Amino acid sequence: MSAEEDNGVTVTPPERLAIGIAFGNSNSSIAHTGSDGKPVVIANEEGDRQIPSVLSYIEGEEFHGNQAKTQLIRNSKNTVAYFRDYIGKSFDSIDPSASHASAHPQKHDKTVAFSIHDTSSESPNTVTVQEIASRHLKRLISSASDFLGQSVNAVVITVPTNFSEDQKKELEAAARDAKVELLQFIPEPIAAALAYDARPETEVRDKIIVVADLGGTRSDVTVLASRGGMYSILATSHDYEFAGQNLDQVLIDHFAKEFIKKNKSDPRENPRGLAKLKHESEATKKALSLGTNATISIESLSEGIDFSSTVNRIRYETLANKVFGGITRLIEDTVKKAELDLLDVDEVILSGGTSHTPKIASNIATIFSQTTRVLAPSTLATAINPSELTARGAAIQASLVQEFDVDDIVQSAHPMVTVAPHLHNAIGVLLLSGDASRGIFRPVLDPETPVPAKRTVTFATPREGGDVLIKICEGIRDIKVTKPEPKPKTNGATVKDADEDDSDMSDSDEEEEEEDLRERAWKVGTELAEVAIKGVKKGGKVEITLNVNAELGLQVVAREVGSKTGVRGVVEKPEH
Amino acid sequence: PVLPQGWTAEKDFKPLGKISKPIQRSIEPVGPHFLAHARRKRHHRTFSEDERI
Prior knowledge:
The structure holds two protein chains of two kinds.
Chain A: E1 18-23, E2 27-33, E3 39-42, E4 51-52, E5 54-58, E6 61-64, H1 66-74, E7 79-81, E8 105-108, E9 111-116, E10 125-128, H2 129-148, E11 154-159, H3 165-177, E12 181-187, H4 188-197, E13 207-214, E14 219-227, E15 230-239, H5 244-263, H6 271-290, E16 293-302, E17 305-312, H7 313-319, H8 321-337, E18 347-351, H9 358-367, E19 373-375, H10 389-401, H11 406-412, H12 415-418, E20 419-422, E21 426-431, E22 440-445, E23 453-460, E24 466-482, E25 517-536, E26 541-548, E27 554-560, E28 567-571
Parallel strand pairs in A: 1-11, 11-12, 13-18, 18-19
Antiparallel strand pairs in A: 1-2, 2-3, 2-4, 5-6, 5-7, 8-9, 9-10, 13-14, 14-15, 16-17, 21-22, 21-24, 23-26, 24-25, 26-27, 27-28
Chain B: E1 13-15, E2 23-26, H1 32-42, H2 47-52
């Protein structure tokens, strides 16, 4: 990216080293893009790439990540976890249930704070969530600096799409306290999409993407239009009931019942027993994503009794079926919210730790058409580790804006730049038929494409060549419903009246939907222009370029491939 | 389709309709293609002007 055209004035910012941070409620990760342009997720000193967003204090010493997470069992009151979603919120607006087994959030002025023994003194301190976030960021940054051998001084942080301006402000302040420059916040689903699209083998293609970010305490689903490599969000959903911790709970309950059967006491009734069970159930869940069998074994789970057991994947999938179903429904609902059909979706990106679950990916794959690509490790061999997607996306963005002035970044993200008219209908070419009501529509510019936009496509002409008429029209998204063809050799099965099939442009057969074949189709809308190209060679091809300007004027250039002259014309901008 | 007999238009181009009303949405300020878009928009350049640089 060229940042050197700043009105000739070259402001040299101090040398920056920027990383991407995926800051989650449950886990965080850090990533850097090296000189080869490939993002790499950095492991901390303990070797973890998924670093639990947990801080714990013992006699004034600070523990972070997995070390802090294990303190949830013995030292839960001085351990702070699941605090990301409390940032920039008032105490009354938070749901503190995730923090039940750790230090409890408290009301403190307009914000949330924790009362913890974070020094060796006898009395506890009140530490605001902003301060906790800052300490967490400091630890992440120092891990990255140690790994890179240079101090990191700038970051791009991913946030959920429903993170408010207040939350961003407070997180920005936390970053400032951690002594790093915050270059930009980017939405988590966009980071995930960028992580895939920035791979050198990915071609820029117009597509509708669903990003299902399945985390520990929440699941977020986002529908995006990707047009010319740019992303526009069409719909979002946030859910706090069908996420990783609900799957942990399924295993906790399963193992607890087994324990009760043998020992007549419920390990969930004492906090330490529950904390142990939760910790190990999560590990068992992860093992079930990789293997078909997993064991759990806990020393002194309750009343001094050890517990060990095994569970296989099928059993787990049966128990967790309700949660899996909730995730699938959440995706269906979000696509509907975007006023799209499941058939309109080209790609589903599974992101977040819970996306490792094979059954979730296969359930999701079944609701979409076979042409929809489901990007998850169990459905696609070349899929990126879902736990790493957002950090990688943030690292890519960090490397892109690293050289920019912060003012430049801020101005580029300004609504003056980002808000643009998006095409309501597709614009394309009508093929085969001379009658505008029939014929086949081929989109050149898809709906939801932001303008200005320009696309070029090549079409085959009628085989005999000669003079060709090109019709440019709008296309409206439609679903074509076809009754399945009656099999000719079935014995005695009612052969449906063949004439019925002709009514397939009307979508009136709702009640028989399951049997019907549904496919994407285009209805022809307003005709925009006609272009004649004369004397096309036999078997010749025609190249058409459509250029829509910011005011929605359309410029058409059509020429035969290989010829120098072509036809140019302009459709004036509309008045509205 | 084949050009029907007697079809004529000035310079072989006949404008017929207008693009229908668009939807105002926000593009996410992320990724290399957005940064190129932002650069064009801020400097009021068109695609071809941008390509020439």
